[in-house]
């Protein structure tokens, strides 16, 4: 593993996040934009914080333009949260396959996540936390959002699967 980055003032290290993950309400403004269309805009996000991962943001469906979502094939299973379903993002004639996911019936510990949506920053044009543009977590599997207030190293890139 690459050496842990020491957090500076106002920063947090993903290596201080717990396992199993914690779920934290966050009032910062979170926006998801694709092809100039606002897909989500909220100040009611939930951050899932898990060791070695940048936060995954889950947004309430009331603050998501669900008319731009459609159910996608397939599911995945998380040992902590349960079964996730996937959603395509549709803007005009463009379909971004499996750009979002949600837990319709998460485990009891993560019940607050029910129906909230998370988005892959790597598949959409813009994801923002306040005025900071998000950098996607490395790799195609994970959906964490990297902002300047979070330091790693982050799981997801080549050679990190064993972390």
In brief, what are we looking at here?
With 163 residues, the protein is mainly β. The protein contains no helices and 15 strands. The chain has one domain (12-148): Metal Binding Protein, Guanine Nucleotide Exchange Factor, Chain A (Beta Complex), CATH 2.170.150.40.
Note the main attributes of this structure:
mainly beta, Metal Binding Protein, Guanine Nucleotide Exchange Factor, Chain A, four-stranded antiparallel β-sheet, 163 residues
Detail the topology: elements first, then pairings:
Layout: E1 12-13, E2 22-26, E3 30-34, E4 37-42, E5 45-49, E6 56-58, E7 69-78, E8 82-91, E9 94-102, E10 117-119, E11 126-129, E12 132-133, E13 135-136, E14 145-146, E15 150-151
Parallel strand pairs: 1-15
Antiparallel strand pairs: 2-5, 3-4, 3-11, 5-6, 7-8, 8-9, 9-10, 11-12, 13-14
Report what the structure shows.
This protein has 163 residues and is mainly β. The chain has one domain: Domain of unknown function (DUF427) (Metal Binding Protein, Guanine Nucleotide Exchange Factor, Chain A). Helix content is 0%, strand content 43%. The protein contains no helices and 15 strands. The chain has strands at residues 12-13, 22-26, 30-34, 37-42, 45-49, 56-58, 69-78, 82-91, 94-102, 117-119, 126-129, 132-133, 135-136, 145-146, 150-151. The strands form five sheets. A four-stranded antiparallel β-sheet has the order 4-3-11-12, with no helix packed on it. A four-stranded antiparallel β-sheet has the order 7-8-9-10, with no helix packed on it. It has a three-stranded antiparallel β-sheet with strand order 2-5-6, with no helix packed on it. A hairpin with a 2-residue loop joins strand 11 (126-129) and strand 12 (132-133). The protein is globular, with a radius of gyration of 15 Å. The model has no long low-confidence stretch (mean pLDDT 96).
């Amino acid at each position: 593993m690459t050496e842990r980055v020491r957090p500076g003032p106002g920063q947090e290290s993903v290596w201080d996040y717990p396992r199993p993950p914690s779920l934290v309400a966050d009032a910062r403004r979170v926006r998801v934009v694709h092809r100039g269309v606002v897909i989500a805009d909220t100040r009611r996000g939930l951050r899932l914080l898990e060791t070695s991962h940048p936060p995954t943001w889950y947004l309430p469906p009331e603050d998501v333009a669900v008319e731009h979502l459609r159910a996608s094939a397939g599911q995945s299973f998380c040992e902590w949260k349960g079964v996730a379903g996937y959603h395509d993002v549709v803007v005009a004639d463009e379909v971004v396959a499996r750009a979002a996911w949600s837990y319709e019936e998460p485990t009891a510990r993560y019940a607050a996540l029910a129906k909230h949506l998370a988005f892959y920053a790597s598949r959409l044009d813009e994801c923002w936390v306040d005025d900071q543009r998000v950098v996607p977590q490395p790799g195609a599997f994970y959906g964490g959002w990297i902002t300047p207030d979070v330091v790693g190293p982050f799981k997801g890139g080549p050679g990190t699967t064993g972390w």
